[in-house]
Design goal:
Structural class: mainly alpha
Mean pLDDT: 83
Number of strands: 0
Low-confidence stretches: none
Strand content: under 5%
Order of helices and strands: HHHHHHHH
Largest sheet: none
Radius of gyration: 21 Å
Helix content: over 70%
Number of helices: 8
Distance between the termini: 50 Å
């Protein structure tokens, strides 16, 4: 291979590695946005605890937003895996080849939980908590809910969002979610 072609290949490899790093950074930033948004909604809801409608509206909006953010993380994860697999397939990156081999060996335990599934667990926790937020606020302020049915619907929505996130994260992506939903 001529020297100028080697330079072009090295630049392509560098660009692909940079793209992989960018997708990882975007995944972590998206998780940070979700946690920050969750904290802001909790603060607003506790501040407006007398208004049950605000609590219900924020609970539903947060649950939907968390689900959308997690789907974005899954698309970013897929993009990073695709680029990494391409580098490994071409034999252009020892790191990508080693990482792909490592990913294929882990199934359960701390290594399994630490990489992708930590984000999944965070989003499940946030979704369930956002769904039961009206109940938590009412309990924290020692009052009963005027609209018990609406609060229960918000709770069920949080559980459904958590089930969808679980299907996406633990069940093999969008195909795993379809199998959980029976589609």
């Amino acid at each position: 291979m001529p020297d100028n072609e080697k330079v072009v290949v090295q630049e392509d490899i560098r660009a692909l590695h940079n793209e992989i790093i960018q997708t990882l950074n975007q995944r972590f930033l998206t998780t940070t946005v979700a946690i920050t948004l969750f904290g802001a909604v909790i603060g607003i809801t506790l501040q407006n605890s007398a208004n049950e409608r605000v609590s219900l509206l924020l609970s539903g909006s947060l649950t939907l937003t968390l689900l959308v953010l997690y789907v974005q993380i899954q698309f970013l994860r897929r993009a990073g895996y695709t680029l990494s697999s391409y580098l490994a397939l071409r034999g252009w990156s020892e790191y990508a080849r080693d990482w792909e081999a490592y990913r294929s060996t882990i199934r359960y335990g701390a290594a399994w939980l630490s990489y992708v599934h930590a984000q999944t667990c965070i989003f499940i926790l946030l979704s369930v908590t956002s769904g039961v937020l009206p109940h938590l606020v009412a309990y924290a302020h020692g009052r009963t809910l005027e609209s018990e049915l609406a609060a229960n619907v918000a709770g069920v929505a949080g559980l459904i969002a958590a089930a969808c996130i679980s299907g996406l994260g633990f069940g093999g992506g969008l195909g795993g979610l379809a199998s959980i939903l029976g589609l």
